[in-house]
Amino acid sequence: MKGLVIKNTGSWVTVRLEGGSGIVNCKMRGVLRLKGMRCTNPVAVGDIVQVEDKGGDAPVVGAIEPRKNYIIRRASNLSKEFQIIAANLDQAVLVATLTNPETSTTFIDRFLATAEAYQVPAVLCFNKVDLLDNEGMRHQLTELQTLYRNIGYTVILMSARTGDGAEALREQLSGKMSLLSGNSGVGKSSIINLMVPDAHVRVGDVSNTHHKGMHTTTFSEMLDLPGGGSIIDTPGVKAFGTIDFERAEVAHYFPEIFRISDNCRFNNCTHTHEPGCAVRDAVESGEIALSRYTSYLSILDEDPSNKYRKPF
Q: Which domains does the chain have, with CATH numbers?
């Protein structure tokens, strides 16, 4: 039997079988775990899998169909190397906030670069815009909105609390399989409750001491949207570690840097120290944002021992 993985709790995966045959909870065949030794979750939400009926025993996921795409990040568990966040996506929506908590531009850029690397269209959604109660913060939001839209990303401004901007996000999600990701506390659960009214996802608080969100979602799950399409809800992440980025390819995942790099004197320019570097000139002139260039450098500086060949 073939089916779609709609939930992954770590120990079990829930599969919606093709042809309306029902929903089953499955274990994973041991060989899949062995193949995914560098991976914390060899089967991800969004995967199309083959399910084997074991009679009286629990069904088993025996094989994974080839993936259209997927998004991974470096695993927090140091005994593993990476975590597959979701697979077979139409788009990835990163929820970010400028306050309560603040999402860093480095986090945003690392997520967007990973989406570029794994061929997943990305959307940036700034939530909690109702909390921007001073001119400086509103100006910062306008600058970020302009920056990312000029690069080519869709940017949505909204408040899950007031409902402002919710319709724009609803239209963006309609008919698509979308990953919803972001730091803990940015309001993913509140957004899901707006988009899927009967989801009743638990909403968490933000620590007054550390100004960071506290986890409410503990596993990945796909939720169907009333108007068609689905959202994949994932646990909030504190940091987004990139992986499998060859040094010479990092610039490819920053569209504005890649475009301007055609004008560099050397074809193998790393945009760090070489003479005649058009990218560094563009940073100095303001054509490329300093925050984006800083994020690019942060990926270049990562420990090369964490790199490995793509596993799928």
A: 2-66 (2.40.50.140), 73-78+84-233 (3.40.50.300), 247-306 (1.10.40.50)
* Token reading at 60: 């088993």
Give the predicted TM-score (pTM) of the model: 0.88
What is the per-residue pLDDT across 113-122, written as a single tens digit (0 to 9) for each?
Answer: 999 999 999 9
C-alpha 265/C-alpha 168 separation (Å) is 43
Distance between CA atoms of residues 222 and 231, nearest Å: 6
Going by C-alpha positions, the residue among 27, 2, 33, 1 that lies closest to residue 14 is: 27
Cis before residue 121, ω within 30 degrees of 0?
no
Q: List phi, psi (to 5°) of 226.
A: -55, -35
CA-to-CA distance for 100 and 107, rounded, in angstroms?
A: 16
Query: What percent helix, strand, coil does the chain show, rounded to 5?
Result: 30, 25, 45
195-205: per-residue pLDDT in tens?
A: 998 876 656 55
Query: What stretch of H or E contains 163?
Result: none
Report the alpha-carbon distance of residue 8 to residue 5 in Å, rounded.
Answer: 8
| β-bridge mates for residue 156, sequence order | 125
Q: Round to whole Å and give the CA distance between 296 and 270.
A: 10
Question: CB count, 10 Å around CB of 135?
Answer: 8
